[in-house]
Amino acid sequence: MMQALGFILDTIIGFFILVLLLRFSLQCARASFNNPLSQFCISFTNWLVRPLRRVIPGLFGLDLATLVAALLVAWVLSLLSAWILQSTGFTLPLSVLLPFTLGLAVIKVMQVELYLLIGSAFVLCILSWTRAYHHPMAGLLNALVAPLLRPLQRVIPPVSGFDLSPLVLILVLQVILYFALPSLQQSLLRAVLL
């Protein structure tokens, strides 16, 4: 029962973190906010971001309140997961629990951002191989992924007109997602248990 609750919480709250990070990433990429996806992100997250903006100023034109909101929501998810884990008998003192769950929240935000970039690169790759490349969403995805693709495109030439740099980017992001982040998570867990 508690595992099902954990899964439901992770799915719902994870989606909200994804929308917050998409909003932040679109802003970082200076993407147009005159499209349905951007408008959805704004209307879905404004209830949390607007009050935080009063307290957290922007930096270099970036809305740090959105990033902090994603981190706070991920921290709440980590605390809820720890509460669910306590039902199995695993407990931590509060002085350890708070920094540990904050560390897990940072890792969760990085994980969701990597999934966002992988998904964007994958869809952009598919769109580039079809006539749908001129679809309005292609411009948004390109704005998200282009800063990461440019260095790869300088090194990897197109093969028979196909740009393979998105595939290389996906591979690099997956290596980070499946090897670097779990290693970071295990280091955090070891630090707590010692």
From TrEMBL:
The chain crosses the membrane at residues 6-26, 60-84, 90-107, 114-132, 164-181. The keyword Transmembrane applies. Keywords: Membrane, Transmembrane, Transmembrane helix. InterPro entries: CCB3/YggT. One of its GO terms (cellular component) is membrane. It holds the Pfam family CCB3_YggT. This is YggT family protein. It comes from Leeia aquatica.
